[in-house]
Design goal:
Helix content: 25-40%
Number of strands: 28
Shape: globular
Bound molecules: adenosine-5'-diphosphate, 5-O-phosphono-D-xylulose
Structural class: alpha+beta
Strand content: 15-25%
Distance between the termini: 61 Å
Length: 566
């Protein structure tokens, strides 16, 4: 019906957000809750706790539930008509795990609509009150062990789509078993952040999502099943321990558009949702992001959230230890290729703050004004009249790609030799251009094999908080050089939007024949209106400039190797 509504939630690092759309893909409501601001009692910083000594980063599960209570309350206060919602999907920050206690199923199934969710579930529904976060770097030992036992990074990447990564859920579960054996023992079920969120909505533990499960290092992507050898290694012990872990993980739902069941009665009674509002698998925030745009071959999404991620959709399952492959969230036979950086917006903010400290802008309405001016006042690579180029690496946090400790490095390249910079670097002003170039050169270096033989994209779509920044968009266009330019998705939250599209597709997709449905791509292309959804924010390829950055790639590769080995 024309007034039917569909919800896409996003449980990300710093916020929980929602977008409601109608059947014509038009957004009718957006709302969010910011953890640090709206749930201050948990005292998180940017949504997480950090234990620097052990390289641990984690988030309190109770805070997410409380924030969800607040978000639903905000929607109610805005007069949102929950009864019109026909379908719900969502996205969760990837890799984070939630450890449910044996009490969880009973508590989820008997929620009292007179009370908020959080006090009914926390702490009793959980065997562990914290969820390891994707920024965590504490699992070096577990990663080395798994990689060595399974036969190396290439083999792990072939099976699971990625080499082992500190943040991936398999190594994280293994660490919880090592560090908190009794909590692991008391765990009845393990969810990802995505399936945890679906469980809250269903009032029962939801299956894992077909795409998000690929962020665990446990799922054999080509054979569409858990890899029992890896499960055994993570579980320790013998056959019983392996089966116990398989049971804790539960099933994986292969159909991204499946109706998992109606929304739990709790929400019907408390908020007035319809009894037949369908819950569709909730996926990872990055898989959900690729659903926000009708991607064509050679198109790239650069998501500029807390993390920076580069995403492509491809029919080719081509693995490498330097990037990730995931099953596509809606379309069997397609895959999502991804690069992910920890040092995205927080690293840019650090340089921005250093510049504001020495050169505050007269434009007090834009905290990025001085940073942007500094970035755009220099030529590519800050090249001097003598031909010296500046290459920097800015990792306030340990980085994923390359696997590198925290630090800042500045280099001068004269085209043949590379050396660490001395006083010829105007710190911090020259850092503005250098950090943007560095982040884009790193993506260009690694995304090449996922793209054409030249490594040049057709379009770059920028999404997320950082895409509002014109200097960031310009340097992205200069370095990545897309032939058709850089486009910004005008709705700021791509993964919530992609999730809402997924909910709509799941409810309205045509049945082609028994068990075969209209594809997500066909469904979206028919309805999507480019003119209202995206804006051309940079011309992209500039003759001579793209080539100049191409010529600097080898030197940039060397700077990364230097940083990773120092
Ligand atoms: N004008 C801007 N320029 C650069 N960065 C920005 C701008 N506006 C917002 N951001 C950045 O966007 C980030 C949040 O993006 P968002 O996509 O909401 O992240 P997440 O989904 O990870 O919570 C913030 O860390 C902030 O630094
Ligand atoms: O770890 C990854 C992807 O592998 C991150 O992209 C997380 O999924 C968190 O994303 P944001 O909160 O930055 O959107």
């Amino acid at each position: 019906m024309s007034d039917d509504l569909f919800l896409g939630f996003d449980l990300s690092t710093q916020q929980i957000k929602v977008i409601a759309i109608n059947s014509k893909l038009e957004p009718v409501l957006q709302a969010y809750v910011e953890f640090d601001v709206d749930t201050p009692e948990y005292k998180t910083h940017k949504g997480v706790y950090t234990n620097t000594e052990l390289n641990e980063v984690f988030a309190p599960v109770a805070m997410w539930i409380k924030a969800f209570d607040i978000l639903l309350g905000k929607m109610q206060a805005a007069g949102f008509n929950f009864a019109k919602v026909r379908g719900i999907s969502g996205a969760g920050q990837q890799h984070g795990s939630v450890f449910w206690s044996a009490e969880a199923e009973r508590l989820l199934a008997s929620l009292n609509p007179d009370l908020p969710l959080e006090p009914q579930l926390s702490p009793k529904a959980f065997s562990h009150d914290m969820s390891p976060n994707w920024q965590d770097h504490s699992t070096a030992e577990e990663c080395d062990y798994l990689e060595q036992k399974v036969g190396g990074a290439e083999v792990l990447a072939q099976i699971t789509g990625s080499k082992t990564h500190h943040r991936f859920t398999g190594p994280q579960i293994m660490r919880v078993r090592h560090r908190h054996p009794s909590r692991y023992e008391d765990t009845a079920r393990i969810s990802l952040v995505s399936s945890f969120f679906a469980s809250l909505l269903l009032g029962a533990i939801a299956p894992l999502d077909v795409s998000d499960v690929c962020g665990m290092n446990l799922w054999d992507i080509p054979n569409e099943k858990f890899d029992e050898e890896i499960i055994q290694l993570v579980a320790g012990g013998g056959e019983d321990e392996k089966n116990e872990l398989l049971h804790k993980l539960g099933k994986v739902e292969p159909d991204g558009g499946k109706n998992l069941g109606p929304i739990n009665d709790y929400y019907v009674k408390r908020y007035g949702f319809s009894k037949d509002c369908a819950i569709t698998p909730i996926t990872g925030d990055n898989p959900a992001t690729i659903l926000a745009l009708p991607l064509r071959p050679l198109d790239v999404i650069v998501s500029l959230g807390t993390s920076t991620t580069l995403l492509v959709s491809t029919p080719v399952y081509k693995t490498s230890p330097s990037y990730h492959m995931f099953s596509h969230p809606t379309s069997k036979g397609l895959y999502m290729g991804m690069l992910c950086y920890c040092n995205g917006s927080l690293a840019r903010e650090k340089v921005r703050d250093e510049i504001n400290a020495v050169k505050p802008s007269s434009d007090t309405s834009d905290v990025w004004a001085s940073f942007n001016e500094a970035a755009l006042s220099l030529p590519p690579l800050g090249t001097t009249a003598e031909g010296q180029k500046k290459l920097g690496i800015y990792f306030p946090l340990p980085e994923i790609v390359p696997d590198c400790k925290a630090g800042t490095w500045r280099f001068i390249s004269d085209g043949t030799a590379l050396r660490e910079a001395r006083n010829e670097w105007d710190v911090p002003l020259a850092d503005a251009r250098a950090i943007l170039e560095s982040q884009n050169l790193s993506m260009r270096l690694r995304a090449g094999p996922l793209l054409s033989s030249t490594g040049q994209p057709r379009r770059v779509y920028v999404v997320g908080g950082g895409s509002r920044n014109p200097a960031i968009c310009q340097v992205t266009g200069e370095v990545l050089g897309p032939s058709e330019g850089v486009y910004r998705l005008e709705l700021s939250n791509a993964c919530a939007l992609g999730s809402a599209y997924k909910a709509l597709w799941a409810v309205q997709r045509k049945v082609i024949r028994e068990g075969v449905y209209e594809s997500f791509e066909d469904f979206l292309s028919e309805r999507w209106d480019e003119k209202t959804m995206i804006n051309n924010v940079d011309e992209g390829y500039r003759r001579g400039v793209w080539e100049k950055y191409g010529a600097a790639l080898a030197a940039f590769d060397e700077t990364e190797k230097f940083a990773a080995n120092s």
